């Protein structure tokens, strides 16, 4: 990493940032991601550190008030992460979203995140996630209801909308702020776009200029120089890192603390996560989540498809460890940047 980029980035991301009545000490956060942001993966991130906040998997607001963390596949956490963990909820009913937020506040988490960003068909068909950007009045009602129900920070994750018009996210951002949101995470892509086009970082700057609350930029940050460029070009208050955090879980420590990974770091991370999956999940549930991780992790390597295909075909975490160790028996060649064909 260039020394100038290194120091400039350190200076920016290690500044404290007030959010509501709380403060985070680092401005790099794990982006909200379903399945990928699971408890085992968050523990892997904690092994390296360097982040300001962690976001959970997406939880149904309708189900959350009655969820038991012992049995739930999504509503799980470690005591050590409670104070810097934000739980992500989805739903289309304001009262259900408010009740879910109350449950989260009672557990002592840092905050609650309202998902208006998920564009997966199964979620949008329920008129949740990004589908709510089609009905901004209802989206605003949800934010207001959640804000009234809790004192903890309220985050809103959202996209550009359903057509490529920067006026849409600017208007939404203003309305979410007026409704009581304490921070925004903005992914500047239209909702039907599953990363086939580049994110419009210039829209992040427009959203930031429109509001007085913190804005976290999200989308296509894959290295330290890209992280620094997003902050400098958009003026955003922090970066929500998604795909790169899965591919290289030490990136927060690298970009905020100068951690220097080597090829052993890759191998050790893959093995450690396999054991953390066994710690937190049943065999089937852990395998499902590990295989999701493996697609992103394999993007680091030339011939990474070989590693992914072998992992994807096995039904044993013990066998996964053998596959990983065999793959690293001769040091594999790394891409300078993860292969984006894996990351779509």
Compose a concise summary of this entry.
With 344 residues, the chain is of the alpha/beta class.
Description:
By secondary structure, this protein is α/β, with parallel strands linked by helices. The protein has an eight-stranded parallel β-sheet with strand order 3-10-9-8-7-6-5-4. A two-stranded antiparallel sheet has the order 1-2. It has helices spanning 3-13, 39-48, 94-106, 121-124, 136-149, 167-179, 201-210, 224-234, 243-247, 251-257, 263-280, 283-297, 304-313, 317-327; strands at residues 17-19, 22-24, 28-30, 54-60, 85-90, 111-116, 154-161, 183-190, 215-217, 238-241. Strand 1 and strand 2 (22-24) form a beta hairpin. The chain contains 14 helices and ten strands. The mean pLDDT is 95. It is 44% helix and 15% strand. It is globular and about 55 Å long. The chain folds into two domains: 3-257, Aldolase class I (TIM Barrel), CATH 3.20.20.70; 263-342, no CATH class.
List keywords for this structure.
single chain; 344 residues; alpha/beta; TIM Barrel; 2 domains; 14 helices; 10 strands
CA-based shape: globular
What is the percentage of strand-forming residues? Answer: 5-15%
Number of domains: 2
Mean pLDDT: 95
User: What is the alpha-carbon Rg in Å?
Assistant: 19 Å
The total of helices stands at 14
The strand order across the widest sheet is 3-10-9-8-7-6-5-4
- Main sheet? 8 strands, parallel
State the CATH superfamily name of the largest domain. Aldolase class I
At CATH's second level, what is the architecture of the largest domain?
Alpha-Beta Barrel
Pick out the low-confidence regions.
none
Structural class designation: alpha/beta
Look up the CATH topology of the largest domain: TIM Barrel
Q: Estimate percent helicity.
A: 40-55%
What is the H/E order? Answer: HEEEHEEHEHHEHEHEHEHHHHHH
Number of strands: 10
Q: What is the CA–CA distance across the termini?
A: 26 Å
């Amino acid at each position: 990493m260039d020394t100038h980029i290194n120091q400039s980035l350190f200076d920016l991301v290690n500044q404290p940032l007030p959010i509501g009545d709380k403060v985070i000490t680092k401005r790099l956060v794990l982006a909200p991601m379903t399945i990928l942001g699971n408890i085992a993966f968050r523990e892997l991130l904690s092994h390296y550190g360097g982040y300001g906040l962690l976001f959970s998997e997406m939880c149904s607001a309708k189900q959350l008030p009655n969820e038991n963390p012992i049995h739930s596949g999504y509503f799980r956490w470690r005591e050590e992460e409670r104070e810097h963990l934000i739980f992500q909820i989805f739903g289309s009913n304001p009262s259900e979203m408010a009740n879910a937020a109350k449950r989260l506040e009672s557990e002592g988490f840092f905050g609650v995140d309202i998902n208006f960003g998920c564009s997966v068909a199964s979620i949008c068909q329920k008129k949740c996630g990004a589908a709510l950007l089609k009905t901004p009045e209802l989206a605003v009602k949800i934010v207001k209801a959640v804000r009234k129900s809790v004192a903890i920070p309220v985050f809103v994750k959202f996209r550009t909308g359903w057509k490529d018009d920067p006026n849409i996210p600017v208007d939404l951002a203003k309305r979410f702020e007026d409704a009581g949101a304490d921070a925004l995470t903005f992914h500047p892509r239209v909702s039907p776009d599953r990363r086939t086009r580049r994110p419009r970082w210039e829209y992040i700057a427009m959203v930031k200029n429109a509001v007085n609350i913190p804005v976290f930029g999200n989308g296509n940050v894959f290295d330290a120089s890209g992280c620094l460029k997003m902050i400098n070009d958009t003026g955003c208050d922090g970066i929500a890192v998604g795909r790169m955090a899965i591919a290289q879980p030490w990136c927060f420590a690298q970009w905020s603390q100068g951690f220097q990974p080597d090829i052993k770091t890759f191998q050790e991370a893959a093995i450690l996560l396999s054991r953390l999956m066994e710690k937190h999940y049943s065999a089937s549930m852990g395998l499902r989540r590990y295989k999701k991780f493996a697609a992103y992790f394999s993007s680091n390597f030339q011939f990474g498809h070989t590693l992914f295909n072998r992992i994807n075909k096995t039904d044993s975490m013990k066998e996964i460890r053998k596959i990983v160790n065999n793959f690293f028996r001769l040091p594999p060649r790394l891409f300078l940047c993860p292969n984006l064909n894996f990351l779509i």
